[in-house]
Amino acid sequence: MASNTPIVIAIVIAIILVGVAAYYIATRSSTTVTTTLPPTTVSTLTTSISTTVSSTTTSTSTTTTSTTSTTTTTSSLPPGAIALPYDASNHTVFLYLAALSTGNTFNFNGTSFGKLHVYIPAGWTVIVYFTNEQSGLPHNLLIVQNDTATPNSSDVGNDGKILLYVGTTPSSYTANGLISGQSASGSITLQPGYYWFCCGIAGHAVAGMWGVIIVSSSITVPYATT
Question: In what order do the strands lie in the sheet with 82-83?
Answer without folding.
Answer: 82-83, 223-225, 117-121, 210-216, 193-198, 141-146, 160-166
